[in-house]
Write a structure and sequence with these properties.
Elements (H helix, E strand, L loop, with lengths): L3 H23 L12 E14 L12 E17 L2 E19 L5 E3 L3 E14 L7 E10 L2 E2 L8 E2 L3 E15 L3 E19 L8 E21 L4 E15 L2 H6 L3 E2 L5 E2 L7 H4 L4 E11 L4 E11 L19 H7 L5 E14 L1
Antiparallel strand pairs: 1-2, 1-17, 2-3, 3-4, 3-5, 5-6, 6-9, 7-8, 9-10, 10-11, 11-12, 12-15, 13-14, 15-16, 16-17
Length: about 350
């Protein structure tokens, strides 16, 4: 069914991207490239903490909590010559929420922490800055998580999934100033996914691994701007990934047998057109707003909207007698609606330039 709200949202981000491009074209002649042979460095580390605790007899029934989040980001770029540029970006984040719960006897106890943030993202891009309107590029990107808790029984898997992407294409830098930068690129990419999973429902279950691959077209637009003497920063990244080949698609098309936990054959619970989900366009729109109150205290607002109809890191695993092994994982990989994430944090950090 056609989802009007979803496509209106996509149209809005397209209009935003086009509008920023128009601003950039007006400043095309005013580009200022980085100094030749010198690494341009920007490293940012921060820690955000919110904590409260109460005694068992505290009036009002309040319960304590502790929320913490650690982030590290680094950007290294070097213009080797007038025609070669190498840029590297690393983003790491991890956070948890610890909450107290009151038992039947009225005593408070701390529950198992819930994960609130988990990002491992490394991207490296080499461009040939030939002085033309469009520059060729090659790029590599690695994405993962420190701890994957997507298992239905919340059994943890470290560094899972693993996603590698290699891309080639052309890019154009519309604006390149000291406090403003705007670039878009279009290309084709090869993507390799590797995901671990538990072979059965017991906590002592063996761990299997499934690998899938994709071939896709990509369009990525990035924008950065600083204002008020770099006290306020806005960083935005809009990505469109359109897979046209997915190794797991044939398994969906050929069909498989689905069994319930007791081993009884049941009707296929997945949508009839699930094979097409894996080659539907993916959209990822990230925005980070930072207000630097002092050199070590800042407020960060992070907003992300993702549309990924099927998570291609989850390949359908078929065992003996054509029975689907990872039924729960495939269920979780289907996300017909867009996903939204927002975090607002006040914390301590420091930036090195």
């Amino acid at each position: 069914m056609f989802d009007v709200k979803r496509w209106v949202a996509v149209l809005m981000v397209l209009v935003l991207s086009t509008g920023l491009a128009g601003l950039g074209v007006a400043q095309d002649d005013a580009e200022e490239g980085p100094q030749l042979g010198v690494w341009q460095k920007e490293i940012d580390a921060s820690l955000n903490i919110l904590q409260s605790a109460y005694s068992n007899n505290w009036n009002g029934g309040d319960k304590g909590s502790a929320v913490w989040n650690g982030q590290f980001s680094a950007r290294l770029e070097k213009q080797y010559t007038e025609t070669t540029n190498w840029r590297n970006i690393l983003k790491l984040a991890y956070g948890q929420t610890h909450s107290q719960e009151r038992g039947e006897n009225g005593e408070l106890h701390w529950q198992k922490p819930d994960k609130t943030d988990d990002i491992i993202d490394l991207e490296s891009m080499f461009r040939w800055t030939l002085g033309k309107r469009w520059d060729p590029y090659v790029s590599f990107r690695f994405q993962s998580m420190f701890e994957d808790l997507s298992d239905m029984q919340e059994r943890a898997l470290t560094f899972n999934p693993l996603k590698f992407k290699e891309a080639v294409g052309i890019s154009r830098t519309f604006v390149k100033e000291e406090n403003r930068w705007f670039m878009t690129r279009v290309g084709v990419a090869l993507i390799q996914n590797s995901r671990k999973y538990y072979l059965d429902e017991t906590f002592e279950a063996e761990i299997g691994r499934e690998a899938t691959y994709e071939a896709a077209a990509e369009w990525i637009t990035e924008y950065r701007v600083g204002a008020l003497d770099d006290r306020v920063d806005w960083e935005s990244k809009l990505s469109f990934i359109m897979p046209f080949v997915y190794s797991g698609k044939s398994t969906f098309e050929d069909g498989f047998i689905v069994k319930d936990p007791d081993g009884n054959i049941i009707d296929n619970p997945f949508p009839e057109d699930i094979a097409g989900y894996s080659t539907t366009i993916d959209v990822d729109f990230e925005n980070t707003f930072t207000a630097n109150i002092t050199k070590v205290i800042s407020v960060k607002l992070y907003v992300r909207w993702v549309y990924d109809k099927y998570d291609n890191t989850v390949g359908p695993v078929v065992g003996a007698d054509n029975v689907l092994i990872n039924t729960d994982a495939v269920h979780q990989a289907i996300r017909k609606a867009g996903q939204f994430k927002q975090t607002l944090a006040l914390g301590f950090g420091y930036k090195w330039n």
